[in-house]
Automatic annotation (TrEMBL):
Residues 220-296 form the WCX domain. This is WYL domain-containing protein. Residues 121-189 form the WYL domain. The lineage of its organism: Bacteria, Pseudomonadati, Bacteroidota, Bacteroidia, Bacteroidales. It comes from the Bacteria. It comes from Segatella copri. It holds the Pfam family WYL. Coiled coil: none annotated.
């Protein structure tokens, strides 16, 4: 229900955003398009619901939708759609679902990956982030195999491999950690607030990472991969990391160079392409992958 409501907000923002070149859009036009959207579920968009949605959008995304001449609604643009902005990122995270829901003909022809971890608590966490409020969570530990309750300061959220994560400061451990939403049993927003670090930049925080692991004591290292020619086409079109550089290209293989923190997520990515990818540097990573391959061979008794 929470994700569906978010999709409705995004649908409304995008509908008004697309009408910007013709001076906005009237409520009657919005209501007509709403009827054609699967998101409507057969219900009409009343003026009262519309106004309430505008207030929710302003609170959640900090996007102001105004009514101008001719009773046409438009977005008061600031930095809300700037590339890389938090608001732009949040809208993009849900926009495809809203777009598909707007077309009955396309709904069964566009297959999206399900992300069940965002269904229950994502909206609550986003609301807490908006107001910089501390949240209490009940979180499942794979080590103790039980739930633990504690407070966190939610800094930002990130999606990776079909899971939503919240990156937050944990007062109990006095460090920044990453918590998976699908391991949460309960989320409660408190009245107590926290101060977001002024020097915290979400994009910068993960700049040297692949995935969601970022240990403070980890160092950025040079990683060199040798990739088969065919697989190189995919790597070339969709880089594994922003630091990717192709330093050599032949008919049989390509050499790609990276500068990042090669943690577990990156090793898993390499291992998933083990038949087309070879680690050349650093030596410790090459040996680690080789050890995993030896263990795999033993497991299959080859």
């Amino acid at each position: 229900m929470a994700i569906n409501q978010l999709n409705k907000y995004v649908w409304l923002v995008e509908t008004i955003h697309r009408a910007r070149k013709r001076g906005g859009i009237t409520l009657k036009e919005i209501q007509s398009r709403w009827k054609d959207s699967d998101l409507s579920e057969g219900t009409e968009l009343s003026r009262r619901t519309f106004i309430n949605n505008l207030h929710s959008i302003e609170e959640l995304f900090e996007i102001s939708i105004c009514c101008g001449s001719g009773y046409r609604y438009y977005i008061e643009y600031g930095d809300c759609f700037e590339e890389g902005s938090a608001r732009s990122w949040m809208l993009n995270a849900f926009s495809l679902n809203a777009m598909v829901g707007n077309s009955r003909k396309l709904k069964e022809r566009v297959l999206l990956e399900d992300m069940p971890s965002g269904r229950n608590y994502l909206e609550d966490i986003i609301k807490a982030m908006r107001d910089n409020r501390i949240i209490s969570i009940s979180y499942y530990s794979f080590n103790t195999e039980e739930y633990h309750e504690f407070d966190i300061h939610p800094y930002f959220v990130k999606a990776f491999k079909k899971r939503w994560y919240v990156v937050a400061y944990s007062p109990g451990t006095d460090d920044i950690r990453c918590y998976a939403l699908d391991r949460m049993e309960n989320v409660t927003i408190s009245e107590e607030t926290f101060k977001l670090p002024e020097d915290l930049d979400p994009a910068e925080y993960f700049k040297d990472c692949f995935g969601i692991i970022n240990y403070e004591d980890s160092e950025v290292q040079k990683v060199v991969l040798k990739v088969d020619a065919f697989q190189s086409n995919y790597i070339r079109n969709l880089p594994l990391h922003s630091s990717q550089k192709e330093t050599e290209r032949t008919d049989e293989y390509s050499i790609f160079e990276y500068h990042l923190k090669p943690e577990f997520d990156f090793e898993q990515e390499i291992f998933s392409n083990m038949d087309t990818m070879e680690v050349l540097e650093p030596l410790w990573l090459r040996e680690d992958i080789a050890e995993k391959l030896r263990n795999l061979t033993k497991k299959y008794q080859i």
